[in-house]
Automatic annotation (TrEMBL):
<dbReference type="InterPro" id="IPR050166">
    <property type="entry name" value="ABC_transporter_ATP-bind"/>
</dbReference>
<dbReference type="GO" id="GO:0016887">
    <property type="term" value="F:ATP hydrolysis activity"/>
</dbReference>
<keyword id="KW-0813">Transport</keyword>
<dbReference type="Pfam" id="PF00005">
    <property type="entry name" value="ABC_tran"/>
</dbReference>
<dbReference type="InterPro" id="IPR003439">
    <property type="entry name" value="ABC_transporter-like_ATP-bd"/>
</dbReference>
<dbReference type="InterPro" id="IPR027417">
    <property type="entry name" value="P-loop_NTPase"/>
</dbReference>
<protein>
    <submittedName>
        <fullName>NitT/TauT family transport system ATP-binding protein</fullName>
    </submittedName>
</protein>
<dbReference type="InterPro" id="IPR003593">
    <property type="entry name" value="AAA+_ATPase"/>
</dbReference>
<keyword id="KW-0547">Nucleotide-binding</keyword>
<dbReference type="GO" id="GO:0005524">
    <property type="term" value="F:ATP binding"/>
</dbReference>
<feature type="domain" description="ABC transporter">
    <location>
        <begin position="3"/>
        <end position="236"/>
    </location>
</feature>
<dbReference type="InterPro" id="IPR017871">
    <property type="entry name" value="ABC_transporter-like_CS"/>
</dbReference>
<keyword id="KW-0067">ATP-binding</keyword>
<keyword id="KW-1278">Translocase</keyword>
Length: 264
């Protein structure tokens, strides 16, 4: 299997008294080139799971393997895109994309690689601009180009379009799908949007909470581009919504109960 999660658990806290388990027994098998989204109520551990694949967060027990190798640290085979593009404002667009490349190749090679990926995200004209001169959507495209330029095997995206307006998000959905088709990357994509997950992905994994676990794994069996008024899409949206609503209500109820105890 290309990317395999086996009995993965995450606990925070360093003493038995303050330890809490975000999730346990997470098993997921992801094939190469698959586009997989992860949905779930706030706090169920979506970002933590992605950070563990990135090697930024330790694994408490279980294993995550990429092509049979245990993941235990960050590496160039995994590229991450966050909700905030986190670019260097003192560098130009091109220099931002070149930045992580310079360690492994000559300046000339890094430049030509950066230009290739800036073309892919339609930002060639802006390569000499500073990133603060760009809109939020354009900055996110720079972050995507930067992650792709490292030629990772897996692209990890944590709510990459969450802070963007609907129109920009729509454009970037189209761009991301076209990049995915061209580059054949495996994508793991965290989102809060059911529509976004169904529109983009081959699979939609739904996480529940308390305890964190996988409660559903939908294979989206519809050709792209997917229209929102397509009957299949509507029915899948409804199924996912019902599941998520139950989980969100569970979280709300626990939070209200906790509040009642702490104020009584
Ligand atoms: N470094 C940390 N130390 C302690 N607890 C943490 C740490 N990082 C995350 N948590 C906790 O772990 C749980 C899962 O957090 P995480 O951010 O992964 O959830 P999420 O599903 O991505 O949430 P959201 O949808 O709101 O972004 C939360 O209760 C959070 O408070």
């Amino acid at each position: 299997m290309f990317l395999r999660f086996e009995k993965v658990a995450k606990r925070f806290g360093d003493t038995p008294e303050n330890q809490f388990e975000v999730f346990s027994d997470i098993d997921i098998d992801i094939e190469e080139n698959q586009f997989v989204s992860i949905l779930g109520p706030s706090g169920c551990g979506k970002s933590t799971l992605l950070s563990m694949v990135a090697g930024l967060e330790g694994i408490s027990s279980g294993t995550i393997q990429l092509e049979g190798e245990d993941i235990d640290r960050p590496g160039p085979d995994r590229g991450m895109v966050f909700q905030q593009p986190s670019l260097f404002p003192w560098l130009t667009v091109r220099e931002n994309v070149m930045f992580p490349l310079k360690k492994n190749m000559s300046k000339k090679e890094a430049q030509s690689r950066a230009d290739h990926f800036l073309k892919m995200v339609h930002l060639s004209k802006f390569r000499s601009n500073y990133t603060y001169e760009l809109s939020g959507g354009m900055q996110q495209r720079v972050a995507i180009a930067r992650a792709l330029a490292m030629d990772p095997k897996v692209l990890l995206m944590d709510e990459p379009f969450g802070a963007l307006d609907e129109q920009t998000r729509h454009i970037l959905h189209k761009e991301l799908l076209s990049i995915w088709e061209d580059t054949q990357k495996t994508i793991l994509f965290v989102t809060h949007s059911i529509q976004e997950a169904i529109k983009l992905s081959d699979r939609v994994i739904v996480m529940g909470t308390r305890p964190g676990q996988i409660i559903a794994d939908f294979h989206v069996d519809a050709p792209r581009p997917r229209e929102r008024d397509d009957e299949y899409v509507i029915s899948l949206e409804k199924q996912v919504m019902e599941l998520l609503e139950k989980e969100i209500n569970k979280v709300l109820k626990e939070e209200l109960d906790d509040e009642a105890v702490s104020t009584s």
